[in-house]
Structure formats: structure tokens, C-alpha cells
Design goal:
Layout lengths: L3 H6 L7 E4 L3 E5 L7 E7 L11 H17 L7 E4 L15 E5 L9
Bound molecules: 2'-deoxyguanosine-5'-monophosphate (DGP).
């Protein structure tokens, strides 16, 4: 399948890995929007949140928690975003959750 994030998961394209377990991978965004900007994704290909089952959603949220703690975001807080489809400006069609933090983020959401 011609999916950029599947190629990263397969190790065909390098990434800066932050955390990995059986079902999920977390690596640094190539174009960081904050001092900490990590992408959390399921290893199994699915286009976006609409395709995620409960088990996958749980695994992703556990990895978000792990990344937040590991990256020192737990005390001051952080933001989680998952762009979905055209209006959400999703550019890579493999479900991923952005974890952003390490500074005071702006109040704008859209
Ligand atoms: P989204 O717009 O929500 O689909 O986010 C896709 C993100 O993926 C975007 O913030 C940039 C990041 N990205 C795109 N290509 C690569 C890559 O090859 N490596 C890494 N680490 N991140 C990438």
C-alpha cells in the first residue's frame, strides 16, 4: 500500500521514534508546531478516526499518555489533535494523533 506512515512503521522511511509497542508507534513530526510535537498512530493501517475500533482507540490513548509523561508534558499540560478528512486538513491518510506541548499554546482551535 502506498502509505507514507505505513512505510515509516515498516522502517522503510526513517523517523525519530519516541515510543513503540505492539499496536502503536510514536515519532516526532517532521514539521514541528511546538517544542514537543509527536505523532501517535496505530501500526495497522486505517484512514482516520472514523475507522478506529475501541481497542485501537484505547491503545492510542494509552500511548498518548505515555508520550506526554515521557516528554515531560504532564505537569504543564498539552494538546491532542487528530485531523480528519478535508475540512480537518488531514494531509496523511493514516490515522494519527498529534501531541503538542512544551510551551503555552494559543487558544485558537480552528
Ligand atoms: P495531518 O496534516 O494532520 O495529516 O498531519 C500530518 C503530519 O505528518 C504533518 O504535521 C507533517 C507530518 N509528516 C509528513 N510527512 C512526514 C514524514 O515523512 N516524517 C515525519 N516524521 N512526519 C511527517
Amino acid at each position: 500500500m502506498d502509505c507514507l506512515f505505513c512505510k515509516i512503521i515498516a522502517g522503510e522511511i526513517p523517523s525519530t521514534k519516541v515510543y513503540e509497542d505492539e499496536h502503536t508507534l510514536a515519532f516526532r513530526d517532521i514539521n514541528p508546531q511546538a517544542p514537543v510535537h509527536v505523532l501517535v498512530l496505530p501500526k495497522k493501517h486505517m484512514a482516520n478516526l472514523l475507522e478506529a475500533d475501541g481497542e485501537t482507540a484505547g491503545a492510542l490513548l494509552r500511548t498518548v499518555q505515555q508520550v506526554a509523561k515521557q516528554e515531560g508534558l504532564a505537569q504543564d499540560g498539552f494538546r491532542v489533535v487528530s485531523n480528519c478528512g478535508k475540512n480537518g486538513c488531514q494531509s496523511v491518510e493514516h490515522l494519527h494523533i498529534h501531541v503538542l506541548g512544551g510551551k503555552q499554546l494559543t487558544g485558537e482551535m480552528g
